[in-house]
Design goal:
This protein has helices at 5-10, 15-24, 35-44, 49-62, 66-90, 97-102, 107-144, 173-186, 190-217, 239-249, 255-261, 269-298, 310-319, 323-356, 375-391, 397-423, 439-452, 457-481, 483-487, and strands at 157-159, 164-166. The chain is an all-alpha fold. Strand 1 (157-159) and strand 2 (164-166) form a beta hairpin. Pfam families: AA_permease_2 (PF13520).
């Protein structure tokens, strides 16, 4: 049967078929992850990134009210997490938001969501790896009195939000080395990567608790006055700054999405994925608020802007000694490794799912029979992420990641009432969003739009260009090679 273009755009892949494909096509990924390592994947992708890096970007916008920014981001992520939890039980397949969209709102919308996810994960991996070099350099300075030469930890392309300059001879080497190490672990298989990640996450949480304990000893309530940013020269005074900062830190919550990308490699996914998402959300929110409160109490807001390895510097200033900063820098080096690892992992699993559906070339779905890992896929992702991290400044990356994340979250929220209507009241599902299919998903959409409204104009411009490229790819390649098209 020949389908019209409209039918092709809105055709869906049933949840049952998505589940069957996870076992029957392309060798299949191995179900090796239990609840604890799965939860640690989510925590590993979130805790650390927003705290270690984005406070430098967020505090100058919101001032001490950045704590409200974290609360707004956490509330929005929490609403969407409930939607993810239900959909993960209904569609226990790799690909996360992409797979959810394919099962509900149609192929074209799913491909657009996939483009958002690729933007989200690819740039997040690069941005986090870039920030890693600051803490590595701080650790080397405190431990050995040696620092990485400036031209080997600086990007070639630098932006100040309005102009792009090229600094020839510069290359940011540390993040590239980090991505190579992540690549080595990931090609060995998901189980080995998840075990390594879980160990690093436990270390990270201990280090952040250590930071909070010491930082609170230097707590000064005067640092919270004035609470809101009063400088309106950049349009960030009052709640406008709080919302803008919420958009900056929001990308840190993609760890919830990362749990859902692992759907095909989880034991008993209908139970473990929803529980893992909700457990990770609670852990993330508690640690973000604890460390943000301690940091703001220990240091005036104006000192955050442009501060390298900020949390280490705070500890050094509070104690007047180098060893606490050394411990924290070492912990940051380990913890950011875990963030980069699971971010790249999520990117490869999304590409795997898209390729299996025929929407991108088959290279991305080939699985090594010995390790159970998509090796070619992983190598390609690491090369691209590594080049961006080595050459590009991270100035715009944070907000671009948030834009991709928020767009995907909106689609996930819309998918809840759609899939309930499709599957009916008797469908097998481990978790249901409370208060019916409209209240929580509706609030989630509104919260995402509230945060998006204060993202920079430049972010919207780049996002539109990226979406135009995605639409062109779909119509030039994907619509003709779709597996559903071949069977339609």
């Amino acid at each position: 049967m020949n389908l019209t273009l409209g039918q092709k755009l809105f055709r869906t892949k049933s949840a049952e078929r998505a589940h069957e494909d996870s076992h029957a096509h392309g060798g299949g990924l191995t179900r090796s992850l239990g609840l604890f390592p799965l939860t640690m994947i989510g925590v590993g992708a979130t805790v650390g990134t927003g705290i270690f890096f984005t406070m430098v970007e967020a505090v100058p916008k919101a001032g001490p009210a950045v704590i409200l920014s974290f609360l707004i981001a956490a509330l929005t992520a929490g609403l969407t997490a409930l939607c993810y939890a239900e959909l993960a039980g209904r569609v226990p397949a790799s690909g996360s938001s992409y797979s959810f969209a394919y099962a509900t709102v149609g192929e074209f919308a799913a491909f657009i969501v996939a483009a958002c996810l690729l933007l989200e994960y690819g740039l997040a991996g690069s941005a986090v790896a870039i920030g890693w070099s600051d803490y590595l350099n701080n650790f080397l300075q405190n431990a050995f009195g040696w620092e990485i030469p400036a031209h080997l930890r600086s990007p070639m392309f630098v932006s100040d939000h309005s102009n792009l300059t090229v600094q020839s001879g510069n290359f940011n080497l540390p993040p590239v080395l980090l991505i190579i190490m992540c690549c080595f672990l990931l090609v060995r298989g998901a189980k080995e990567s998840a075990t390594t990640n879980a160990v690093m996450v436990v270390i990270k949480l201990a280090i952040l608790a250590f930071f909070a304990a010491i930082a609170f000893s230097g707590f000064d309530a005067n640092n919270f006055t004035p609470f809101f940013n009063t400088d309106d020269s950049k349009g960030f005074a009052g709640m406008a700054g709080v919302t803008a900062a919420a958009g900056t830190v929001f990308f840190s919550f993609i760890g919830l999405d990362t749990i859902a990308t692992a759907g095909e490699e989880v034991k008993d996914p209908r139970r473990n994925v929803p529980i893992g998402i909700l457990m990770a959300l609670v852990i993330v929110t508690v640690f973000y608020l604890l460390v943000a409160l301690a940091a703001m109490g220990a240091q005036p807001a104006h000192l955050f802007e442009g501060q390298e390895a900020g949390l280490s510097v705070i500890l050094q200033n509070v104690t007047g000694q180098a060893w606490p900063a050394l411990v924290l820098s070492a912990g940051a080096v380990v913890s950011v490794f875990s963030v980069t690892l699971v971010t790249i992992y999520g990117q490869t699993r999304i590409l795997y799912a898209i390729s299996r559906d025929g929407l991108i070339p088959k290279t991305f779905q080939k699985v090594n029979p010995r390790t159970g890992a998509p090796v070619s896929n992983t190598v390609i992702v690491c090369v691209v992420v590594g080049l961006i991290a080595g050459l590009v400044d991270s100035t715009f990356l944070w907000d671009m990641v948030s834009m991709g994340t928020l767009t995907a979250f909106i689609v996930v929220s819309i998918a809840v009432p759609v899939i309930r209507a499709k599957q009916g009241p008797n469908a097998e599902v481990g978790f249901r969003v409370p208060f019916g299919p409209y209240v929580i998903p509706g609030l989630s959409v509104l919260a995402c739009l509230y945060i998006m409204k204060d993202l920079p104009l430049a972010t919207y411009r780049v996002f539109i260009i990226w979406m135009a490229a995605a639409v062109a790819t779909y119509f030039l390649y994907s619509v003709r090679h779709s597996r559903l098209n071949k069977k339609g």
